[in-house]
Amino acid sequence: MLNGKKIVVVMPAYNAEKTLKKTYEEIPKDIVDDIILTDDKSCDRTVEVAKAMKIKTFVHDQNKGYGANQKTCYQEALKLGADVVVMLHPDYQYPPKLITPMAGLITSGMFDVVLGSRILGNNAIKGGMPVYKYTANRLLTLIENHMISQKLSEYHTGYRAFSKEVLLNLPILENSDDFVFDNQMLLQAFYFGYKVAEITCPSVYTKESSSINFLRSLIYGIGVLHTASRYMLQRHSLGKWPIFDKNGAKLAS
After folding, report:
1. How open is the CA angle 6-115-49, to the nearest 5 degrees?
2. What is the DSSP string of 67-130?
3. What is the pTM of this model?
4. Does CATH place domain 7-244 in 3.90.550.10?
5. Any idea where the domains of the chain sit in the sequence?
6. Cα–Cα distance between 108 and 50 in angstroms, integer?
7. How do residues 19-50 score in pLDDT, each as one tens digit?
8. Rounded to whole angstroms, how far apart are CA atoms 241 and 233?
9. Closest by alpha carbon to 155, among 166, 135, 134, 141?
């Protein structure tokens, strides 16, 4: 509990056998009530390692995609009665110790969504982020800020915390099952008027860190711009899409 709110950490996993234990051990158990891992049909021993550590583990019977993995994570967290859900990748790219301040910003009632930004603090490249990824991140963020009239330092971090209300009210079941899910969910939060904060998040890139190849990165970038375009058009009543429809498909409480 933190400020009387139940905190649940979710870990969408795919081939995280080598980094899961280290990530899990640094999660602040003094404020985290439950930890969930959803495995997207890994090819390694991720599930065995998770179960050995007594982590609540859910396994997809086939690889469904990063976005689909998150949908399962959030649904299971809500079933446990979570008030705040923090998504932490089990590849140890993001520091688990930041769970406390991220959750705290939400339990304070000041914010609904909190992002761990790798760009704030100028530590991204020092932490090992490939230069081409850093450049693409900065360019896409610049374009998106202009298109949707926001001022985030980055839209592409995988370290995120959400209030229960956000998870119940956003039509996230309308979102992609692929990597652009993250971007769609963030733009939905802005579209429906939720308050979003960022904190500085040092990141570490190793050979075990999850990553997508250049082609998938290119497809993701196109998806990001496509989502921002739809956001902008719908804001000006020039179109209508399910991901920005308040009556779109949502998670169950």
Report:
1. 60
2. HHHHHHHHHHHHHTT-SEEEE--TTSSS-GGGHHHHHHHHHTTS-SEEEEESTTTT-TTTTT--
3. 0.95
4. yes
5. 7-244
6. 31
7. 999 999 999 999 999 999 999 999 999 999 99
8. 10
9. 141
